[in-house]
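Priority: medium. Attachment 1 of 2:
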């Protein structure tokens, strides 16, 4: 399974409608609102979307469909890499403590 998180910037008045539309995509496993910390300039992205697909191609297609929606102003896609080997496992244990 391949995964990514997409950070999305939208106009405030389109945020809820955009979230609902994106939530219906079959590859989307989570849609989250970014909470404003009180400083408007510190918030760039409004929505975080978790995307999961069986293949890399399916993930790319889903990401493209989400990013090219007309109400989306800008995005930043974060690819999740999950690799189980001895080096990563010991590093991950160190990071979790």
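Attachment 2 of 2:
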């Amino acid at each position: 399974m391949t995964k990514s998180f997409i950070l999305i910037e939208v106009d405030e008045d389109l945020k809820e409608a955009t979230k609902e539309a994106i939530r219906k995509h079959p590859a989307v496993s989570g849609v989250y609102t970014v909470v404003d910390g009180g400083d408007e300039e510190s918030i760039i992205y409004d929505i975080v979307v978790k995307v999961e697909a069986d293949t890399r191609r399916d993930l790319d297609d889903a990401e493209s469909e989400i990013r090219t929606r007309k109400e989306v102003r800008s995005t930043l896609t974060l690819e999740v890499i999950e690799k189980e080997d001895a080096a990563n496992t010991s590093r991950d244990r160190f990071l979790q403590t």
